[in-house]
Write a structure and sequence with these properties.
It is a single chain. The chain is α/β, with parallel strands linked by helices. Helix content is 37%, strand content 12%. The chain has 17 helices and 11 strands. Bound molecules: glutamine. Residues 131-134, 157, 177-181, 209, 330, 442 line the site of glutamine.
Length: 505
C-alpha cells in the first residue's frame, strides 16, 4: 500500500488491521517531509515530539480507544498555536514564539490529553505572514513551492498545507480561510479543502488576522477525508465569543454527509444528485477568467448533470464589490488585532531604542513584513476619524448586501458552483510587486467569506502547463455535510483528486 497517497479510511483500516503502527506511519511521513525540504512546506519538524504522540496513539489503539482518526498524521498551518512546536504565523515577529497552550482545533484533532481524536502531529506548515496573501510569498521564511511545478506559487495563505498534501508529506492538514486561503491553495495544488460556516470551528488559538472572517478548516485529498476531519474539528467553544451554539451548528458533519444522497444505501446509484439544483453565477464567468479554468469548470458541471443535478443560471450582482469591501474590512480588523505585537505583550523586541515609543516603533518595523505593514496602514486609515464613515462603515453595508445576494440566489438553487480562482498558479515573483493584481485574484472567494458561508474547493482538472484547477462549491449556512457529499459523488466518477505529481508518487 502506498501510504503517501492513501485515503484516511485506508489508513484507518491499515492501523486497525495492524498492517502498520501509528509510530511507523509517523516515521514514514516524517521521512517524506525531510526529503522534500526544498518545497519549504514545513516550518518546524521535531521527530521526538511527533514520535511521542505516535506512541500515545499506538497505546490508545492497543486499548481499543480509537476514533476514525486515531494514529493518522496531521500537520497544522503555523497560524494555529501549539504548546510544543513553535508558532510563528509565518512572521519574524513570532520567530521564536512558543505558546503556553494548544489551539482548540489542535486539541480536538490531537492526542495529548487522551480526549481528542488522537491524530499525530507531524509539525507546522508554512503560510503567508499572519495569513495575509494569495501566493505564500509573504512568509518571512521564504515562499512555498508548488509540487506540480517548483517555479510556481502554491497559492496562499495556506500554501504549506496544500503543497504538503499534494506532495504526500501528510495525509491531512489544517488551514485557515479569511478570504479564500483554504480554497485557493487547494485549487492550485489539486487537493480538497473546505471553509465551514463562520462560527462552526473555534478560533481559539488561531492567531488572528480579521476576526469576523477568519475560519479554520481541513485540507486533504478528497471530500470524504475532509468530512472526517471537519467532523472532529467543529463544535461549540466557550473560549471563542463567536463560536456557534445553535442546534444546526451542533449537528455532526458526518451525519449530514452520510444522510445526503443516500451515501450508505446507494438507493439512487445511477443519479445520486437527482433534483439537486446547481446555481451558476454569471458574474463568475466574465472577463478575467482564464479559458483553461473556464473549460475545466464547465466539464465539471457536465459531470454533475450526469449525476442527476440540474443547472440554473443565477446572479450574484455585487461580486466585484467584494474586493473593495474585503480589502477595507480585513485590514481594519488586522490593524486592530496586530496592535498586540509591540515587543512588550507579544513579539519581537528590537535591540535598538532609547525610549518606549522608539522601542515599540522599531520592534514593529523590524518584526513585520511589507504586506503586513501595508494592511496595518490601510486599516488604521479606514478606521480613522473622518474616514470611518466613508470607508469602513460603507464597506460593512456592502458586506450586508453581498450576504443578501447569496440568500436571494439560494432561493433557486441548492449549491452555487464556479471557479475558485480566475487562473491557475502563477510563477513565483510574477505578481509580487503589484499588490492590487494579487488582490484581484481573490474575486471568487471573498464574497463567501464576507457572507460567512461555507465554501469548498475540489480538483476538477488541469490547465495550461499541467497546473491543477479547482471547482468551488458554495453552500448555504450549515450545509457542509451535503456539500462534501455532493463533492464526494463527483469524486466517485472522476479521478482528478487522485492525480499526483510524477516525481512524488
Ligand atoms: N488572499 C486574501 C488576503 O490576502 C485572503 C487571505 C486569507 O484567506 N487568509 O487577505
Amino acid at each position: 500500500m502506498n501510504f503517501a497517497h492513501a485515503s484516511l479510511k485506508a489508513l484507518r483500516a491499515a492501523l486497525d488491521s495492524k498492517q502498520v503502527s501509528a509510530t511507523e506511519l509517523a516515521e514514514y511521513f516524517l521521512a517524506r517531509a525531510e526529503k522534500a525540504l526544498a518545497l519549504n512546506a514545513f516550518l518546524h519538524i521535531d521527530r521526538g515530539l511527533t514520535l511521542g504522540q505516535a506512541r500515545e496513539a499506538d497505546a490508545r489503539i492497543a486499548r481499543g480507544e480509537t476514533t476514525a482518526l486515531t494514529g493518522i498524521p496531521v500537520a497544522h498551518k503555523d497560524i494555529f498555536v501549539t504548546r510544543d512546536w513553535r508558532s510563528t504565523a509565518g512572521s519574524n515577529m513570532l520567530a521564536d514564539y512558543v505558546s503556553p497552550f494548544d489551539a482548540t482545533v489542535v486539541e480536538k484533532l490531537g492526542a495529548t490529553d487522551g480526549k481528542g481524536a488522537g491524530m499525530v502531529c507531524l509539525g507546522k506548515l508554512n503560510c503567508d505572514e499572519f495569513a495575509m496573501g494569495s501566493s505564500n510569498e509573504n512568509s518571512a521564511f521564504g515562499p512555498v513551492k508548488n509540487p506540480w511545478n517548483l517555479a510556481k506559487i502554491p497559492g496562499g495563505s495556506s500554501g504549506g498545507s496544500a503543497a504538503a498534501i499534494a506532495a504526500g508529506l501528510t495525509p491531512a492538514a489544517t488551514g485557515t480561510d479569511t478570504g479564500g486561503s483554504l480554497r485557493q491553495p487547494a485549487a492550485m495544488c489539486g487537493v480538497t479543502a473546505i471553509k465551514p460556516t463562520y462560527g462552526r470551528v473555534s478560533r481559539y488559538g488561531m492567531i488572528a488576522f480579521a476576526s469576523s472572517l477568519d475560519q479554520g478548516g481541513p485540507m486533504a485529498k478528497s471530500a470524504e477525508d475532509c468530512a472526517l476531519l471537519l467532523d472532529a474539528m467543529v463544535g461549540f467553544d466557550e473560549r471563542d465569543s463567536t463560536s456557534l451554539n445553535s442546534p444546526e451548528a451542533l449537528t455532526p458533519i458526518m451525519a449530514g454527509f452520510l444522510a445526503a444522497f443516500a451515501l450508505e444505501s446507494r438507493a439512487d446509484a445511477g443519479a445520486p444528485l437527482k433534483g439537486i439544483r446547481i446555481g451558476v453565477p454569471k458574474e463568475f464567468f466574465g472577463a478575467g477568467l482564464a479559458d483553461d479554468v473556464a473549460g475545466a469548470v464547465e466539464a465539471a458541471f457536465a459531470e454533475f448533470e450526469k449525476l442527476g443535478a440540474v443547472r440554473v443560471e443565477i446572479s450574484l450582482p455585487r461580486t466585484t464589490l467584494a474586493i473593495p469591501a474585503y480589502y477595507v474590512i480585513a485590514p481594519a480588523e488586522a490593524s486592530s488585532n496586530l496592535s498586540r505585537f509591540d515587543g512588550v505583550r507579544y513579539g519581537h523586541r528590537t535591540k535598538n531604542y532609547r525610549d518606549l515609543a522608539e522601542m515599540i516603533a522599531n520592534s514593529r518595523a523590524e518584526g513585520f513584513g511589507a504586506e503586513v505593514k501595508r494592511r496595518i496602514l490601510t486599516g488604521a486609515y479606514v478606521l480613522s476619524h473622518g474616514y470611518y464613515d466613508a470607508y469602513y462603515l460603507q464597506a460593512q453595508r456592502v458586506r450586508r448586501l453581498i450576504g443578501l445576494d447569496f440568500q436571494e440566489a439560494f432561493k433557486s438553487c441548492d449549491f452555487i458552483m464556479g471557479p475558485v480562482a480566475p487562473t491557475t498558479a502563477w510563477d513565483i515573483g510574477a505578481k509580487n510587486n503589484d499588490p492590487v493584481a494579487m488582490y484581484l485574484e481573490d474575486i471568487y472567494t471573498l464574497g463567501v467569506s464576507l457572507a460567512g458561508l461555507p465554501g469548498m474547493s475540489a480538483p476538477c482538472g488541469f490547465g495550461n502547463g499541467g497546473m491543477p484547477i479547482g471547482l468551488q462549491i458554495i453552500g448555504n449556512y450549515f450545509d457542509e455535510g451535503r456539500m462534501l457529499a455532493a463533492a464526494h459523488q463527483y469524486q466517485q466518477v472522476t479521478d482528478w483528486h487522485t492525480r499526483r505529481p510524477e516525481a512524488l508518487r
